[in-house]
Design goal:
- It comes from Streptomyces cacaoi.
- Pfam families: Cupin_2 (PF07883).
- By secondary structure, the protein is mainly beta.
- The chain has a single domain, classed as Jelly Rolls (Sandwich).
- It has four helices and twelve strands.
- The longest helix is centred in the last third of the chain and has 5 residues.
- The N terminus is likely disordered.
């Protein structure tokens, strides 16, 4: 059985709002949102973990690079379960790296490191975990994107208006860098 509650972001959730309560979520039944060409499903967030970490999946088609961004207080993990994802990372000294990650591969991005990714194969999936002293950022997906009850990818990419990107750094520890250039390729 799942616990459902309503918030201002979604009509119903399959995860409890209160911390410290055990719960179970069936595959794909977390809180879902469409952003860019992807489906993001949150299974645990700040509400459940007292803002210590989050756990989510990102599924998407082969496509464009997700815009460069940085989390000033949050470390992020990329674990690939399906397909292939190219991870781009720039450390705090400005050294850039990119790596093609396939199923079973892992990438770690420390806080303050600019990063981006691109799905390299259709139906790729990333399991993400983010943690840090500043809390969690998973509600960013449904605030910048569109909450959805659907299980599939969006019929059309959900691309927010440029001015909306400026609203998220203070609330969700995600700062986009629209002029960032990757020199790795």
């Amino acid at each position: 059985m799942t616990i459902e509650y309503a918030t201002r972001y979604r009509r119903a959730s399959h995860i409890p709002a209160e911390p410290g309560k055990p719960y179970f979520v069936q595959k794909g039944e977390g809180d879902r949102a469409h952003l860019f060409g992807d489906l993001i499903t949150v299974y645990a967030g700040g509400e459940q973990t007292e803002n210590t970490f989050n756990f989510f999946t990102v599924e998407g088609p082969k496509g464009d690079i997700i815009p460069a961004h940085v989390h000033e207080d949050t470390h992020e993990v990329f674990y690939i379960t399906h397909g292939a994802v190219r991870l781009f990372v720039e450390d705090t000294r400005g050294e850039q790296q990119e790596r093609l990650l396939t199923a079973g591969d892992f990438g770690f991005v420390p806080k303050n490191c600019t990063h981006a990714y691109r799905m390299e194969r259709h139906h790729s999936q990333v399991v993400g975990v983010a943690a840090g002293p500043g809390g969690t950022f998973e509600r960013f997906f449904e605030n910048l994107g569109e909450p959805t009850e659907r299980h599939g990818l969006p019929a059309e990419p959900v691309v927010p208006e440029p001015e909306r990107f400026a609203t998220v750094p203070q609330r969700f520890d995600v700062r986009f860098l629209p002029d960032h250039e990757w020199r790795t390729r």
